[in-house]
Amino acid sequence: MSKRLKIVTTPWHTMHFWDLFNALKDDADFFLIHNSSKKWYYETRPLPENASYVPYYEKGKYDLAILDVDQQCVNDNLGKSRLYKEMRDLITDIPVIVINHGSPVYPEFLKIGDNETFEYAEKKCKRDMRELVGKKTMVINSFAGKTDKEWGWGNPIWHGMNKDDWFDLTKEPRVFTALSPAGCDLYYNRERMNEVSQILEEKYGIILWWARVNIDTEKSFDTYRNYLGKSLLYLDTSFRTPMNRGRTEAMLSGCCVIQVDGAHDLNKFAINGKNMVIVPDNAEEIAKKVVYYLGEGYQEAVKIGQAGKQMAIETFNYKRYRQDWLDIIAKKIWR
Amino acid sequence: MEIKIITFQKKHGRRQGSIGSSIIRGDWLANHWPEAEIWTEGVKSDVMIFQKVYWSEMMKEYPGIKILDLCDPDWLTGELELVKLSKLVDAITCSSQGLYDYVSKIVDIPVRMIPDRLDLDFFDFKKKHEKKLKKVAWFGYGHNAKSVLPSVIPSLARLGIGLIIISNEEYNNDGAYEIEIQNKRFDWDTIKYDLTNADVIINPQPMQINTRFKYKSDNKTWIAYALGMPVANDLEEMERFMDPDERNKEAEKNLKFIKEKCDIKQSVIEFTDLIKLCQERKK
């Protein structure tokens, strides 16, 4: 692309946007519209130089808009749903790409609990999302997201990160997770994380360090990456989230990732016991693996962590990420 | 000229109709101001009215005329940094004389008192008083009910007058006095009918007048007047309104006052004048 693009958006997922803006730093400037629902969290990431705030949308000023949704946007009562809808209805003169950050796991919306109704809730969520996004291009964060089990449509783009943003430090024998601590329990498989935490503490006297639960790693970007970089193990129990970013950050920090099986796209990059430890969705089994790698398996974990880092550098980098985005932007703008 | 009103209700994602000041100083104003609309995400405008919205980030970026509209003394609780925000906006409007008196001494930009006037189209129903006073009504936020009602309930019980309480939370009399109390949830869709179910609106002063009281607007009294309901501020006034003829006379006088002084269209004129002043000051 010869000209520098002007892309208008609203702040949504600070970490996701940090990488998107930085990856496209030679190609685009981003304009974030002030809104009532979402903001840039400066404590977690500084605002990149090619991004700035604007007070409102102005026709004729921009080449492209990026809007964001997740499964919670099917709930009209939330501020982020209103934000998406009002921006979608306002921006009609330029192409719009929608990034969908979630998967159709949102039983809380319909307040239902058994397996049969879970299935119904997911079907409804997919149907409502189709309506919400319409014919706009929808970028999803994983290839699994495109399968019928998840959204059933969308343009997958794996995230990309800058390896130099992450600190691979001497590893302390501890287990850490940055799994979101609130909301969407089933989506994050948080019940399993809670069980593992309880078993580790009660049975083995081991504390699971959990960001925003028992350790304040969100104070600053440096606090987070320093803590992550010194952690031997990173645990992720989610398997319906499309490509957890925290897991890639951990891999780039040289942590040995312990991941519950069935997570999106694992078969495309993970090799059990070589660059990641894949475990069944069973709290006792997960706890046993944690205990092993924190104890006699320490050196093995360091080795797996290094192989994971190498794989992450090759797979989740800015070069590939930038190209994926430029390809999809080119299709939208010059079709 | 495009004018957008960002209301507290809209900015903070509250349910439509749940914030009285946003209805009165947002929706009602926009209903009678062809150039004005309630703000929506990302929309461009020439003027922004921040109705109890203390959004410094937006105020810094927004290039048009900015008016901060105050209806509460939120500097007392630290929610509002009055001096800081006054340097980011072009003018301030206040809903009461008390607010105006204080704010105009503190800031060095134009300040205007624009009271909580009414959308008279909304008040299309007037009470006809025919019988002796049987029920009074009180309306307002639940926390205020606790500070004003205990002082009037003994008198109401003695006179055998029932009480309708229209609020966001239920009032519990604890059975200390024998009085018929009817709790109703405050709802803008039904308020005019709920209020006119009574014969008189009572507006007692709190037992201990706190600092915030002097900043309150007259909106409750005016709403009652617009429905043809007399307002009793004390026992003496209530006793005067026992007689339906007295109430009809009072209602007629008050309705004239409302039409002359409390029409929201007057607020549109006053806001428009203030915007013109701001434009001139910006030249």
In short:
Chain A is 38% helix and 16% strand. With 335 residues, chain A is of the alpha/beta class.
Describe this entry's structure for a reader:
Chain A has 11 helices and 12 strands. Chain A is of the alpha/beta class and 335 residues long. Chain A folds into 2 domains: 5-160 and 317-333, Rossmann fold; 163-315, Rossmann fold, CATH 3.40.50. Chain A has a 7-stranded parallel sheet with strand order 3-2-1-4-5-6-7, sandwiched between helices. In chain A, strands 9-8-10-11-12 form a 5-stranded parallel sheet, with helices on both faces. In chain A, helix 8 links the parallel strand 10 (231-236) and strand 11. The two termini of chain A are 14 Å apart. Chain B is of the alpha/beta class and 283 residues long. Chain B folds into 2 domains: 3-117 and 263-282, Glycogen Phosphorylase B (Rossmann fold, 3-Layer(aba) Sandwich); 135-261, Glycogen Phosphorylase B (Rossmann fold), CATH 3.40.50.2000. Chain B has helices at residues 8-11, 20-31, 56-61, 82-86, 97-106, 142-148, 153-159, 191-196, 219-226, 235-240, 244-261, 264-282, and strands at 3-7, 36-38, 47-51, 65-70, 91-94, 111-113, 135-139, 162-167, 181-185, 200-202, 231-232. In chain B, the strands form 2 sheets. Chain B has a 6-stranded parallel sheet. In chain B, strands 9-8-7-10-11 form a 5-stranded parallel sheet. In chain B, strand 10, helix 9 (219-226) and strand 11 form a beta-alpha-beta unit. The two termini of chain B are 16 Å apart. The mean pLDDT of chain B is 93. The chains are: A alpha/beta (335), B alpha/beta (283). Chains A and B meet through helix 2 of A and helix 3 of B.
